Amino acid sequence: MTNDKDLKRRVRARMAKTGESYAAARAQLVAKREPHPSEYAELAGMSDEAVAKKTDKTWAQWVEALDAIDAQEMSHRDIAKAVRERWPAIGGWWAQMVTVSYERIRGLRAKGQQRDTKLFDANKSRTYPVPVSELYAAWGARKRGRWLGDVDVTIRTSKKDRSMRITWPDGTDVHAFFESKGPTKSTVSVQHRKLTSAKAVAKAKEEWHERLDRLRTLLTGK
User: Fold this and answer.
1) Are the C-beta atoms of residues 148 and 218 closer than 8 Å to each other?
2) With contact defined as beta carbons under 8 Å apart, do 130 and 219 qualify?
3) Residue 57 and residue 60: Cα distance in Å, rounded?
4) Residue 124's CB: how many other CB atoms inside 10 A?
5) Of the candidates 111, 122, 142, the residue with the CA atom closest to the CA atom of residue 199
6) What phi, psi does 33 have (nearest 5°)?
7) CB-based burial, 33-59: b 16+ in 10 Å, e otherwise
8) Which of 114, 130, 88 is nearest to 200 (CA)?
């Protein structure tokens, strides 16, 4: 009975979103094969061991927790907000990572693709042997030109030593998340969003690889 009620709720939610008839919406949902928990890590793009180390939950535990709050029917923003509010200890970057991975597992988006759009994301991260305050400062107006190059970016929002949201000259978005790994070690995770194709993703990843290499040279002299 519980499963029937859950299916009806999901059918009604899909009808409201797509305009399909009840029969058509139900057929689409029934046709989707639920992945086995053993497939979750592959769909998420990260092992159970890695996510559990950072968040204290495996993918099966995250799926169970998010299903319990009806996350399948939420927007990306609302899922991420719920994760941040309910599990604040994991931080903003991991809240996003958990949200995106959950959406992949539940078939709400393809790997590398933004939800409900035909746009894509490119992700790169790098760890440096410097305090997070020094890493964050290197992204400021006085220093970033030395490694970012001649790119006229607009910083929309920033939280010191934590994050930046940037508008790229071509209208795409770059989100940078900073995390301290100790007194002399820190990580930046870059998400370049609103890319139009898998080819653009590959190009962006290559460019960010080169930029983050130049940032290492600036920070360490190597």
Assistant:
1) no
2) yes
3) 8
4) 17
5) 122
6) -80, 125
7) eeeeeeebbebbebebeebeeebebbb
8) 114
Claim: this prediction has a pTM higher than 0.90: no
Neighbouring C-alpha atoms within 13 Å toward the C-beta of 131 = 6
pLDDT (tens digit per residue) in 41-89: 988 888 999 999 999 999 999 999 999 998 988 888 899 999 999 999 9
**DSSP letters for 51-114:** HHHHHS--HHHHHHHHHTTTGGGS-HHHHHHHHHHH-GGGHHHHHHHHHHHHHHHTTSS-TTB-
Tokens standing for residue 43: 């769909």
Alpha carbons 92 and 27: distance in angstroms, whole number: 36
Q: What Rg do the C-alpha atoms of the chain give, in angstroms?
A: 20
Q: Which long-range contacts link 162-171 to residues 24+ away (Cβ below 8 Å)? A: 162/92, 162/136, 163/92, 164/139, 168/192
pLDDT tens figures, 159-197? 999 999 999 999 999 999 999 999 999 999 999 988 988
CA nearest 114: which of 159, 76, 59, 64? 76
3-state secondary structure of 13: helix
Q: What distances in angstroms separate CA 51 from CA 33, 44, 61, 193, one per listed residue? A: 24, 10, 11, 22
CA geometry: angle at 65 spanning 108 and 125, to 5°? 60
* CA–CA separation, 174 and 168 (whole Å): 7
Residue 106, both tokens: 């539940």
Amino acid identity for residue 104 in this structure: R
